[in-house]
Amino acid sequence: MNTQFLTPYSEQAEQYFWKTGVAEIDLGKVPFQSIHNLLISKDNSSISSVGSCFAQHVGKWMIDNNYPFNRSKLDSRQISSFAFGNVYTPRCFLQWLTLDPAHSHRFDIFYDKNAERYIDLLRPNVHPDGFSSEEALREARISAKNELLATLRATNVLIFTLGLTEAWKDIDDVFYPNCPGVIAGEFNDAIFTFHQFNYNEIKSDLLLIKDIIQGINPQIKVILTVSPVPLTATASDKHILVASQYSKSVLRAVAGYLADNDEVFDYFPSFEIITVNNVNDFRFNENRRTVSNKAIEYVMSHFKSAFSDKKITKAQNNGEKNHQETVCDEERLDALNKLLHHSNDTTVNQLTLLGDSHMGKLAKALKEMEIPFMGGMVMNGSGFAQGKFSICETEYFVPLENAASRQLFAPILKNLQAHEQSKFEKKSVIISNIGLQTHQTVARFFTWLQKQKDADIKDITLKNYVDFFHEDQSKQLSILLTMKERGHTVIVVSDPPFCRYFKESQSMTWLVYSYFDALEYICSQLNILFFNAAKAFDEEIDTPMAYASDICYPDGQHDWIHGNSMYYTWLANKLLPIVSENT
């Protein structure tokens, strides 16, 4: 036989070539052939799972499809094998395998003075309401550890979904599943620090985990997977896209090495199956492998900024704040100062304010009028408009703009939860401007509109706005809808009308006002009340500039986003009758 033209690839099967192994696969309909080498007996297996939030999907699918899955009897909130909640890093799982649950460390239990409950910061999602005593908390940990050991003894397949390399630890080197202060507790930078696990640390932790669980049960095999879910936020100094890819790459590299070099480990490619590029992805040509010219231009448009003027680049890297965020930061600092002076207030208020700096200024007006309420500003307008938060079933959402935003949201959440726990013994009304933020969202809408093939910028329709809300602001609107569905009356308030009264902002007035109209329509479809403050103000006030902000910046720009104190007093007087009707 003539072997002159044979190469190591000549007799390889179809799955070893991109064209036949990937490009010709109808993604989402046809499974990839021979993409893993796992062989698990459905009859003789006892399967457990641990890891990130993606691990819950694994457990749910196995239960739904009648596979032998070990589900925790101590955690009914999530579908998992152990009562630890999400375990994002190997170190956190290793910690549970090695710690003495009867012994607590200095900072892993948080006492909530307002609720008079003890919160387990090592398991904040398992018992979000906390415990009546430290003893009860430790007993629950002991039960969870005992269940862990019992389940491992009965397990022969452990699926470990690796989620993150980013973590938070305290000065005693205790690691936490979440940054303290995000879901529970309080963040103190003198106690808690950020830690980025590297390749060697991840590998070392997984090998230690193997040694421990093999000592408990020598029959256990470990299937490693990497969660395809990107990071929600990063505490590193990298862009979230870069930070997320780095984290997944490190985890994938470790998983691959262990699966290839240790017989206890195997690998299942959920990460690859979810993240592989699909057809009609502008970044790739039809073969889904070679990069398109359009993608190259897109990449190089980012690289071009490396050649920008040094002064401009420095300003961009320093995150130069725009004018409106400066005003908002002042409002937030004022709100935090007031919060510190009223941290022990346990009164349940019927009226709650939730939003950006407009809600902070409205809060000042209500306080001057001696109207009882809870809340005000939580994040900057950009925080809401750009989605700097994570949707959370138990807490509506978790603000991710900074630690201060979570501090400001905490008493608001407690007030709302108090109403829910009392089954609305007193009616609850929420005033919010989430979804507005027109100094940000109108620009986002215009950018979005320019990308739509069938859109006419000169003839914007209601459908254009509805589509935009669906694609760009659905998370924001879901917060309002969830609050309404849980029994609260929600009143959404438009931004002020002052864009029309300053030269630098007049050109966008028609977009701002049509945005108000569109959001009012959306709210009506969701049975959420909407107060168009701009429209009411224009119809009622003959001297609008008397209500405008008098802030003028060094470059001559005016604060057209906010009103002055007279405006927010006027707004309070317009809203209070609506609040009264609903309480």
UniProtKB/TrEMBL annotation:
Q: What is its EC number?
A: 3.1.-.-
Kindly give the SUPFAM superfamilies that the UniProt entry links to this protein. Answer: SGNH hydrolase
Keyword Transcription regulation in record: no
Q: Which domain of life is it from?
A: Bacteria
Which InterPro entries does the protein's record reference? GSCFA
Which residue range or ranges hold the GSCFA domain? Answer: 47-303
- Protein's name according to its UniProt entry: GSCFA domain-containing protein
